[in-house]
Amino acid sequence: MLDIKFGEQGQIVVSGRFDASQAERAEAFLSAVQESREMDLGGLQYISSLGLGVLLATQKRLMSSGHALKLTNVRGHIREIFHFSGFEQVFEIEPNPPA
Amino acid sequence: MDSRAQRSFPRTASCLPEIFAFMDAFFEQAQVADSCRNTAELAVEELFTNLVKYSRGGKRDIRIDLARDTDRLIVSLTDFDVEPFDIRTVPDAKTDLSLEERKPGGLGIHLVKRLVDHIDYEYADRNSTTTFIKNLE
Description:
The complex is a heterodimer.
Chain A: E1 2-6, E2 12-18, H1 23-30, E3 37-47, H2 49-63, E4 69-72, H3 76-84, E5 92-93
Parallel strand pairs in A: 2-3, 3-4, 4-5
Antiparallel strand pairs in A: 1-2
Helix pairs in contact in A: 1-2
Chain B: E1 3-9, H1 16-30, H2 34-54, E2 62-68, E3 72-79, H3 108-115, E4 118-124, E5 127-135
Antiparallel strand pairs in B: 1-2, 2-3, 3-5, 4-5
Helix pairs in contact in B: 1-2, 2-3
């Protein structure tokens, strides 16, 4: 199950599994975001192409009004997926601190 | 060690949670490492939803076969009584475009081809089977 909510500092906090069955709910949440935000993906365990499409569509919409999502805590398998999807070119992704 | 499991699922994306539960139970029983599970589930989700959306003529349930041997996870999806569709012929997504040029969609098969270690395709008697192998770490 996917959990998506605003954190205490106004960041978007995403955790759990972002599969095709969760895309509609995530889309509804993100459609209310109208300005630049950090998106904390530290708790995200899984994302498929529909989830990636939701993030990409949100970034396109925000960029058209001069805003953007900045992705933080992108780790392991999720970072690999973002790399193969070319997300480094279209998102600012915060580097992970050295382990 | 050899383990196998097989189950068929209705051709709707709403049964993805059932598919993941089927796979998780197999992974537990076959002792598949956590590091391979997300990749295998992603590949199955992308292949399954692709068949649901685009498989021409498909009406029957889609069968998923899972197997592991000593060092490989082998997964097949079989779609019955359909036209052939070999994902190996699908061009790669253009992931180097600017945000303005990019459109959501088209990443699923692209990711499968990069994340698994081998893909096979077989078409016989109007039955279409895509098999992928993920080497176990």
